[in-house]
């Protein structure tokens, strides 16, 4: 009889293949997601060593990072990006891996399509050569990002040698108020614990405010775990998870579904399970947040001001000075007085149907400020189709937003969607690092509703006072 | 993989906290499909102006740090994106190790797969090395993985902790795919016992 176990511990134990003396444990990987940017060198490594992909059926690939968001069929003008996409096509063919390619109705950001296809399921181990693999933890899977050497390792062995991480529980009491979203919860947590607050840990998000989130909201929350330094983020599966998965393309059916559901229901952490660290958050204290600096922990309430330097330690003080200099801001500036030039609604954090619905509700009946260029980039072709069926694209277009094809787009600007030097952007993505959206570009992270409202107002504005049509 | 045992070299100080991998190797250089040649793009947006001119203010452009093989940096080095290109760029530029008070997990993992060392010292110790690298010309230190020790000629000596298996792989330059494949029988057995009927049939 094992003691009281956490969700993480249950998944870890189940996937332990071997524990060689004096070495890192070897764990089995159920699902390996692959994209064009972090995989070519891994496939080269396999070829050089004469190795095969051990389980091609557990490996799924798509192109997302550098695909253009112009109408599909437009040739890729960036020849180096085209070469990288061609390399993935060739590698998938050679090694027998399913690829959701540019022209596939299933194409999309890897962390958007895994869940919507039902590939992502509770209790699985999932990896991808991408730090935001933490997104899939929303289903109660152990999902984390790896580097290219580890991609090669998983391709060759379907396993990873991993040191066991520690566990951290983030207990979110109470309820989120109207206008305060999963994104604000994520930003609020990172603002509190810092960008290295969860380093070495797997976070389990718990508490009534987390239980009340939709699957989309849970994905947004888990997505940002890596911005707190966490190895992974997870939410225990429940009825919300199960009803989301029912009928999805790769979800089990019939008897297998019954078996799966029984397993999933056994996963939540036991009542007395111990965590290495516990953090409590009061949801009622949270509000819509806006980042003002160059990492996601530099965050302020929309009603607040850019902070001053008082009480900061030397290293933090210098970091703040550099951040403000880069962002072209001074201490004490009211957040609502910051004008913006661009708006980006998209990325694996906030490009799902619920995000687009929330943004469209704000945009409806309004018009984007004449000083702002705003774009909406659905996370996948499936999200795009769903949004168009609901007529969301009309609302956006009537309000003056550009409606684009799916991909990572201006989240990291590997395709032509980038900020110009000095341009200031309200973005629903996850990173406000220097140059992330284009060299010299200034990124402020916000929720989809806050981004849509900023597009219309031309500056940040508190969504809680918004006049919805 | 190139083994790492004992290395002595010049130290360059990067006095910033939370240096993210977007800064170490900006995204515009991630489109290459090779593992080599990333050194020229290391810290590109800090090293060069928009027009490609060297930024004289940036520490790695100072002639006195030319040829440095050890980088000392503020806490939480390597946070953000999982891009292993960050390690390839540092190594290709000539660095063998980074010393800081903390590293992001994925960055440390990626480092060890490339014979590149992330050395965790206490904040006060990092501050001493940083100060000396700024003040002393051609400041050199020794990073000794056999003894798990960092030392200089001025009497600095500090020990660091590292996972024993990771250390073993680094000292011997071992490829851990090969090591895992020694467990092929156990992997087969695992797959037999866990057919996972409810796993995705992609
Ligand atoms: S949307 Fe952004 S964060 Fe997400 S996978 Fe793409 S580039 Fe990475």
List the SSEs and their pairings.
The complex is a heterodimer of chains A (469) and B (202).
Chain A: H1 7-14, E1 16-18, E2 26-28, E3 31-34, H2 40-49, E4 59-62, H3 79-95, E5 98-100, H4 110-116, E6 125-128, E7 142-145, H5 148-157, E8 159-161, E9 166-173, H6 182-193, E10 201-206, H7 208-211, H8 215-223, E11 232-234, H9 239-245, H10 254-265, E12 277-282, E13 289-291, E14 299-301, H11 314-327, E15 342-345, H12 353-363, E16 373-376, H13 381-390, H14 392-398, E17 402-403, E18 424-427, E19 442-445, H15 448-457
Parallel strand pairs in A: 3-4, 3-6, 4-5, 6-7, 9-10, 9-12, 10-11, 15-16, 15-18, 16-17, 18-19
Antiparallel strand pairs in A: 1-2, 2-8, 13-14
Chain B: E1 6-14, H1 21-24, H2 44-47, E2 70-73, H3 85-93, E3 97-100, H4 105-112, E4 117-120, H5 123-135, E5 140-144, E6 149-152, E7 157-159, H6 164-172, H7 176-181, H8 184-193
Parallel strand pairs in B: 1-2, 2-3, 3-4
Antiparallel strand pairs in B: 1-5, 5-6, 6-7
Bound molecules: iron/sulfur cluster.
Provide structural commentary:
The complex is a heterodimer of chains A (469) and B (202). In chain A, 32% of the residues lie in helices and 16% in strands. Chain A is of the alpha/beta class and 469 residues long. In chain A, helix 6 (182-193) runs parallel beside helix 8 and helix 12 (353-363) crosses helix 14. Chain A is globular, with a radius of gyration of 22 Å. Chain B is built from 8 helices and 7 strands; from the N terminus they run βααβαβαβαβββααα. Chain B has a 7-stranded mixed β-sheet with strand order 4-3-2-1-5-6-7, with helices on both faces. In chain B, a hairpin with a 4-residue loop joins strand 5 and strand 6 (149-152). The mean pLDDT of chain B is 94. Chains A and B meet through helix 2, helix 3, helix 5, helix 10 and helix 11 of A and helix 4, helix 6, helix 7 and helix 8 of B. The structure holds iron/sulfur cluster (SF4). The site of iron/sulfur cluster (SF4) has 13 residues of chain A, from loops.
């Amino acid at each position: 009889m094992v003691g009281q176990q956490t969700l993480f511990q249950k998944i870890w134990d189940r996937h332990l293949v071997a524990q060689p003396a004096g070495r890192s444990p070897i764990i089995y990987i159920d699902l390996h997601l692959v994209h064009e940017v972090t995989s070519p060198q891994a496939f080269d490594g396999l070829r050089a060593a004469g190795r095969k992909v051990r389980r091609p059926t557990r490996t799924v690939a798509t192109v997302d990072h550098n695909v253009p968001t112009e109408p599909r069929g437009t040739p890729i003008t960036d020849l180096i990006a085209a070469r990288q996409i061609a390399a993935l096509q060739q590698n998938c063919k050679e090694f027998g891996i399913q690829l959701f390619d540019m022209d596939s109705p299933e194409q999309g950001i890897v962390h958007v399509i895994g869940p919507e296809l039902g590939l992502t399921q509770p209790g699985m181990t999932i990896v991808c050569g991408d730090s935001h693999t933490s997104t899939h933890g929303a289903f109660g899977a152990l999902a984390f990002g790896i580097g290219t050497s580890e991609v090669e390792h998983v391709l060759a062995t379907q396993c990873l040698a991993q040191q066991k991480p520690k566990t951290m529980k983030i207990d979110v009491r109470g309820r989120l108020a109207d206008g305060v979203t999963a994104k604000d919860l994520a930003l609020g947590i990172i603002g509190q614990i810092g960008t290295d607050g969860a380093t070495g840990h797997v976070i389990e998000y718990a508490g009534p405010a987390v239980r009340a989130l939709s699957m989309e909201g849970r994905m947004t929350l888990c997505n940002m775990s890596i911005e707190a330094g966490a190895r992974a983020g997870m939410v225990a599966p429940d009825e919300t998870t199960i009803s989301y998965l029912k009928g999805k393309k790769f979800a089990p059916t019939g008897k297998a579904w019954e078996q799966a559901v029984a397993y999933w229901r056994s996963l939540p952490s036991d009542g007395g399970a111990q965590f290495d660290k516990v953090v409590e958050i009061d949801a009622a204290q949270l509000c819509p947040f806006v980042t003002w600096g160059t990492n996601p922990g530099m965050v302020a309430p929309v009603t607040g001001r850019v902070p001053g330097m008082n009480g900061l330690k030397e290293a933090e003080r210098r970091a703040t000075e550099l951040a403000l200099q880069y962002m072209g801001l001074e201490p004490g500036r009211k957040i609502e007085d910051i004008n913006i030039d661009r708006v980006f609604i998209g990325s694996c954090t906030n490009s799902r149907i619920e995000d687009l619905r929330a943004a469209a509700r704000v945009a409806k009946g309004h018009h984007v400020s004449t000083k702002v260029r705003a774009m909406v980039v659905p996370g996948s072709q499936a999200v795009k189709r769903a949004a168009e069926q609901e007529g969301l694209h009309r609302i956006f277009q009537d309000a003056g937003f550009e409606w684009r094809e799916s991909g990572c787009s201006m989240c990291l600007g590997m395709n032509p969607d980038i900020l110009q030097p000095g341009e200031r952007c309200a973005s629903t993505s996850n990173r406000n690092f220097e140059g992330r959206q284009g060299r010299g570009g200034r990124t402020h992270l916000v929720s989809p509703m806050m981004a849509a409202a900023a597009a219309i107002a031309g500056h940040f504005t508190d969504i809680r006072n918004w006049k919805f049509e | 993989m190139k083994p790492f045992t004992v290395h002595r070299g010049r130290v360059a100080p990067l006095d910033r906290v939370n240096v993210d991998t977007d800064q170490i190797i900006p995204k515009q250089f991630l489109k290459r499909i090779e593992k080599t040649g990333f050194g020229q793009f290391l810290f590109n947006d800090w090293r060069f102006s928009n027009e490609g001119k060297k930024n004289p203010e940036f520490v790695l452009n100072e002639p006195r740090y030319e040829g440095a093989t050890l980088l000392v940096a503020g806490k939480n080095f390597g946070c953000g994106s999982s891009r292993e290109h960050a390690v390839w760029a540092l190594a290709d530029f000539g660095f063998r190790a980074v010393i800081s008070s903390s590293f992001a997990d994925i960055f440390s993992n990626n480092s060890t797969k490339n014979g590149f060392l992330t050395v965790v010292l206490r904040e006060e110790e990092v501050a001493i090395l940083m100060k000396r690298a700024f003040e002393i010309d051609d400041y050199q230190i020794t990073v000794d993985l056999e003894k798990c020790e960092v030392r200089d000629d001025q009497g600095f000596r500090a020990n660091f902790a590292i996972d024993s298996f990771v250390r073993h792989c680094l000292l011997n330059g071992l490829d851990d795919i090969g090591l895992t494949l020694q467990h092929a029988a156990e992997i087969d057995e695992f797959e037999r016992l866990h057919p996972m009927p409810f796993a995705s049939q992609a």
